[in-house]
Amino acid sequence: MTTLRPVSTVEALAAALRERVLSGDIEPGAALPEQELSARYGVARPTVREALALLVHEGLLRRERNRSAYVPVITSADLADLMYVRAPLEELMAEAVAGRRVTAAEEALDRLSGLPPGAPWAAVVAEHMALHEALVAAAASPRLERLYATLAAETRLGLAGLRTAYEDPRELAAEHAALLRVIAEGPASEAVRAVREHLRWRHP
């Protein structure tokens, strides 16, 4: 028997706002005033403040003194730099995992493939991240995992901006299916090449 952990109002609000940010309902640069959120969701301002603090901690929002929390704007230069840093980490993963199937990554791919065309983009982002994180975990390097985790928030925000580049989540699933196939078949040189090609982001 699996026991479900109760979800607090703070966590529920954070989850609702997270989905809106990652689905593009709240645009980059948009502010999230506490009073407006309190009225919209029917919760007290301290609850809103805690939920926003969770998302700031995750890196999905930023907050500056005397200013409402807001969604960071990820520019093309930010994305280029993100890929510059992600590439060597994922290439290390490819070298370590080449020639093996990674069950957790395949399961994430199945979930991604099963999303309907109208699914919230936040769900696409979640499965995309789960797939890549499973591959990194399969490399069995705690330091690689920690380094990769530091890029998670910016990666998720970058993926949120890709929603207009893919009309159907299955397009993204097909790209990842091809990547997993090359990694599983090897050799390491081909896996590294496939990862390098994969990290060339499609522009909206």
Automatic annotation (TrEMBL):
Record's keyword terms, sorted: DNA-binding, Transcription, Transcription regulation
Transmembrane intervals: none
Domain spans labelled HTH gntR-type: 7-74
Highest taxon of source: Bacteria
GO molecular function terms attached to this record: DNA binding; DNA-binding transcription factor activity
Pfam family, one: GntR
Annotated protein name in UniProt: HTH gntR-type domain-containing protein
Biological source species: Microbispora bryophytorum
